[in-house]
Design goal:
This protein has 269 residues and is an alpha/beta fold. The chain has 2 domains: 1-81 and 161-229, Rossmann fold (3-Layer(aba) Sandwich); 91-159, no CATH class. It has helices at 46-54, 75-79, 97-102, 117-129, 145-157, 175-190, 202-208, 226-229, 232-239, and strands at residues 6-17, 20-31, 35-39, 60-65, 68-69, 82-85, 163-167, 194-198, 211-216, 219-224, 243-248, 251-256. It has a 6-stranded mixed beta sheet with strand order 6-7-8-3-9-10, with helices on both faces. A 4-stranded antiparallel beta sheet has the order 2-1-4-5, with helices on one face. Strands 11-12 form a two-stranded antiparallel ribbon. Strand 9 (211-216) and strand 10 (219-224) form a beta hairpin. Helix 4 (117-129) crosses helix 5 (145-157).
């Protein structure tokens, strides 16, 4: 039975590149006000899954948003519903930080020269929220990786959509900014937005997300509330790591055990 209150229904999607299986029979649902975290090892399909929801990749199967298959939306309609931070900002495409974030407002106009007063105001507000306003006149390509990440998050948020997709939003960030970004995203979900992130930071994803999906080899191997599914057995089966997990309220501390044998490091001598 499908969830009648779910705004996103991913119904058995699969993705193959040539003969390689990237995603297989992925099924889940998300309600408004939920923050969903997608975790898993490198190459498990996290980014591909987000790209499917963002319509960057066309999978087999169905994705329904607000009761309508995603392929039935026009590009303009979809950009007003879904914003996405995905990898690969083009190299050599020099723009000021302010201009990069302002590009996120293009979903609200049909013209090329689209700087409305409300867009300028929103751009400045999100630059300040992400604490990159002082960089607004810098060339985007001159920023550090962490600064670029915060600028691109601002660009996604300034679209002001009900569904926000973010691929590894806290990658490259120091501890302070990781926490601040997760606080912002959690606040957005509490304001009835749907926030879906991929992450390698199991601890922070578990602490802030209402629900976690664990991917491995293109399949969902666990899904549910973080404390119900994040355990030592899962960490070993998915990551191949022996670890001890200690929970402090809703925050897991994952303590890995040293697995590499001395003889395996002889090549470093």
């Amino acid at each position: 039975m499908k969830c009648e209150k779910c705004e996103i229904i991913v119904d058995g999607i699969s993705v193959y590149f040539n003969s390689s299986k990237i995603l297989e029979n992925i099924k889940f649902e998300v309600k408004k006000g939920e923050m969903l975290g997608i975790i898993g090892p490198n190459g498990s399909g996290k980014t591909t899954l987000l790209k499917c929801i963002a319509r960057s990749i066309i999978p087999k199967g169905r994705i329904i948003i607000f009761g309508k298959p995603i392929e039935e939306y026009t590009n303009n309609e979809y950009s007003k519903i879904v914003s996405a931070l995905l990898p690969n900002w083009p190299n050599g495409f020099n723009m000021k930080v302010y201009e990069v974030v302002l590009m996120g407002c293009r979903n609200r106009t049909n013209s090329f020269w689209w700087e409305k007063e409300e867009d300028i105001k929103a751009t400045e507000e999100f630059l300040k929220l992400l604490k990159v306003y002082h960089l607004h006149d810098r060339d985007f390509t001159t920023l550090s990786s962490g600064e670029q990440r915060r600028v691109l998050i601002a660009k996604s948020l300034v679209q002001r959509t009900d569904i926000i997709l973010l691929d590894e939003p806290i990658a490259y960030l120091d501890l302070k900014y990781r926490i601040e970004i997760m606080e912002i995203l959690k606040s957005l979900s509490k304001n009835n937005k749907i926030v879906i992130i991929s992450a390698h930071e199991i601890d922070l994803a578990s602490s802030y997300c209402d629900k976690i999906i664990v991917l491995n080899n293109g399949k969902i191997v666990a899904m549910g509330k973080p404390r119900d599914i994040i355990n030592e057995k899962l960490i070993y089966e998915v990551y191949g790591i022996n670890a001890t997990i200690k929970w402090f309220e809703n925050y897991p501390i994952i303590i890995p055990k040293r697995n590499i044998k001395k003889e395996e490091l002889l090549c470093l001598n």
